[in-house]
Design brief:
Blueprint: E1 8-10, E2 20-22, H1 28-33, H2 49-64, H3 71-90
Length: 91
Amino acid sequence: MTSQSFATTPTENSELSGIEEPTTPVNLNIIKNENKYNIRPQYSYKFKSDEIETLIKTHLNESLDGKVYDVAESGNLSKNLTVELLDKIKG
């Protein structure tokens, strides 16, 4: 345990003798601003779901126009569409 030294003056209204109050002022701004966290992103960094939804619908309509469902082709088609959509969204 470490001991701390403060500049002190005797307490005038102290019921117990020998109790001293610190005369060093406490910076209340430090205490007020301590532990403040932003739990939400700034507006410019928010996920824009409307834009993404429009992008996905447009890409799927263009890519799947005129296609007929084929079991053998559907697995590869869905993987390719996923890669293409991720590239469009990230890029």
